[in-house]
Amino acid sequence: MTSRPNHWTEVLRPAPRPDSRLIVFPHAGSGASRYLRIVSDLPEDVESVGVTLPGRDRRAGESPRTTMAAAVAAIRAELHAFPPRPTVFYGHSMGALLALATAHVSACDGVVASCSMPGTRGYPDPRRVSSPEGMAEIFALHKLPGDALQAPGLSRAQQTLAHDLSLTAEALGAVDHLRLGVPLTALAGTDDPLIPPDVLPLWATFTSGAFRERLVDGGHFFPFAPFGHGVLVDELSASLAVARSHFAVG
Predict the structure, then answer these.
(1) Which domains does the chain have, with CATH numbers?
(2) Cα-based torsion angle of the residue sequence 211, 12, 220, 94 in order, rounded to the nearest 10 degrees
(3) In terms of Cα–Cα distance, which of 63, 52, 65 is closest to 25?
(4) Quick one: pLDDT at residue 250?
(5) 28-61 pLDDT, tens digit each
(6) What whole-number distance in Å separates Cα of residue 67 and Cα of residue 55?
(7) Spatial separation of the C-alpha atoms in residues 50 and 41, rounded to whole Å
(8) Using an 8 Å Cβ cutoff, are 214 and 185 in contact?
(9) What's this model's pTM, rounded to 2 decimal places?
(10) Angle at the Cα of 233 (from 227 to 238), degrees rounded to 5?
(11) Which has the minimum average pLDDT: 19-23, 97-101, 121-125?
């Protein structure tokens, strides 16, 4: 990986002669390094860039606390400095929401989202998502105490996860009214206890461009299982090919 200290983006895998770029937005509690194996299997002319939130990987010494506005603004500013080329944003779980929000304000030619709720519209009671009761339920699903943001004695990894889940709750509401004009692909695992399969079509509301959905055998982390890994690499490669064709026409 090629990184710059205290910055939000890093080149996960450079390309000798890049003809397209993938921006990776990791899931809650994780960093860009978790996706190295995935991006390593993409075509060699794809430059892969990872987003690193504070509190993990090379930013492990920083507080993990941030906001959607701060994260999106910082990521947008750094991506703007990269040379223009066909670009696809990929996000998993929390990362899918952050990718969507960043794509709304950045140059982007396609989005691939895996294992994420489509904003608050996927919930029976959208208002409950960011309420104290709703947050306690989200923490419980991830084996954290209801007061995880203030609870003493949590490990560094647990603290980072708790702040990321708080950011996820904020992101769910922040993306509700966003609408892109680029192709969007939504993926979900058939056995994911966190993302009901019937919410997958709701991702279509986020774009006026082409939309496709796909259920993949596996659970919430299917991209890191052998079969799901292959499916994701195929989907990312296909989205990048479409981005290149649109970029050339434009």
Answers:
(1) 2-126+179-249 (3.40.50.1820)
(2) -70
(3) 52
(4) 54
(5) 999 999 999 999 999 999 999 999 999 999 999 9
(6) 13
(7) 15
(8) yes
(9) 0.95
(10) 130
(11) 121-125
> Is the pLDDT at 3 greater than 60, yes or no?
no
Helices (H), 46-89: 68-80
Place of tokens 């999106």: 72
As a three-state string, the secondary structure of the chain is: CEECCCCCEEEEECCCCCCEEEEEECCCCCCHHHHHHHHHCCCCCEEEEEECCCCCHHHCCCCCCCCHHHHHHHHHHHHHCCCCCCEEEEEECHHHHHHHHHHCCCCCCCEEEECCCCHHHHCCCHHHCCCHHHHHHHHHHCCCCCCCCCCCCCCHHHHHHHHHHHHHHHHHHHCCCCCECCCEEEEEECCCCCCCHHHHHHHHHHECCCEEEEEECCCCCHHHCHHHHHHHHHHHHHHHHHHHHHHHHC
The residue-averaged pLDDT of 84-107 equals 98
Read off the DSSP letter of residue 109: S
Tokens of 43: 């075509």
